[in-house]
């Protein structure tokens, strides 16, 4: 209603529809509609049921699923999620998104739970450009895709004047070393260093307050001596003095993390950087009424240069290696040499130079180089990182047939193996070639028939059955030799004859093969 009065007032002052649109932020079509309506007509219009704009109708189901998953989501978060999931999402006013969310909540009875405020912050005077930044840590529980809970930890640095922020996620609590790495990433993101940085009295940074003569922790103290910024610490229980970063931590929890599922830490960090570029540093700040990114362009002119920027290791960041021998960097997958993945927690180090990324197995050993992809969800693969396929499938099959004796039984088994394990046929053949079982032909034939009768087509099973049958035959041969020896001496020793009659040859137990299968 206030907006309707504002439109009427500006019109009476001689403003055109376009000028009113620019001053109020309303679409020109909306301005024209308001000007045509009288007060009674406008009151009746805003009190009548609203229809959803056709251009947003296709997103109703998405918004409903988001709110059912996490009812606490705000309209601003829904807007960010829509932009994240739909690359062709139209440029529309945030108020329209708010109306969409409100309508979905009312239509499907999805009210927003009340969240009590735990802290009240006091506004402090603005600092000069490049003068100060604030640092704080946060932690949050996230839900994984398999419905488990995962705790993540994050580091936040905010430039005071512009409110330009950076966030760095890890899977464990921060130490002096990991916080130093986070500082380096933040300075690279800001393209400079502030003159001073304000901290909480966290044990990561200081050992003792000492009446204002702070004793820095060993790792952080050594780092500060190499840098140009001055560390400043708040008094205990005084969060208001660094309210800017406190608000940023809350913003990250409530806007970025809330309702987001955890996949892995690399993807989460990549999503966080995209969120900063799309929302966190792109939307108008409620306090300054300015876009942080635009203010940062001015503030970075006043930042100090980064010291030791090219020092070995400062720009190399560790990444977890996935089971498929890839890493995730900025929502894309980059291949590594086969065998790089050893066990959970295997890491490589990534360094960016110009338009390429360099991957190291240690801080100095280069193992892969890739051009940086500007897309999302792409798989960038180096042909040399593929499995060895120097032998054709036909050549491998012929090698296996030779090992198995070139029999019709062996050919029949391989046909059924290929049909049953079409995607892993080459792997099965490779395993038989690798093990190269050197058994008698009767052992191989009996083992193949046993597997066919049981319907088991797997190289590991076949090789285990061969080994079991071979041991069984060797044991039987040993028994036969013992019987022969006893038989030869039976004429001289009647006791031996009696023992020989009572001795029985061990027979195969079908349970043994069932255990193998």
Note down, in words, how this protein is organized:
It is built from 19 helices and 15 strands. Strand 12 and strand 13 form a beta hairpin. 44% of the residues lie in helices and 15% in strands. It has helices at 2-12, 17-24, 28-36, 39-47, 60-69, 75-85, 94-107, 176-190, 218-225, 243-257, 265-280, 292-299, 393-404, 408-420, 425-435, 441-454, 459-488, 494-502, 510-516, and strands at 132-144, 149-159, 165-170, 196-199, 206-208, 215-216, 230-233, 261-262, 317-320, 326-329, 332-335, 347-353, 356-360, 366-371, 379-380. The model is unreliable at 310-314 (pLDDT under 50). The strands form four sheets. Strands 1, 2, 3, 4, 7 and 8 form a six-stranded mixed sheet that branches. It has a four-stranded antiparallel sheet with strand order 9-12-13-14, with no helix packed on it. The chain is an alpha/beta fold. It folds into four domains: 2-107, no CATH class; 132-302, Ribonuclease H-like superfamily/Ribonuclease H (Nucleotidyltransferase, domain 5), CATH 3.30.420; 317-385, no CATH class; 393-516, no CATH class.
Quick rundown:
Helix content is about 45%, strand content about 15%. It is α/β, with parallel strands linked by helices. The strands form four sheets. Strands 1, 2, 3, 4, 7 and 8 form a six-stranded mixed β-sheet that branches. Strands 9-12-13-14 form a four-stranded antiparallel β-sheet, with no helix packed on it.
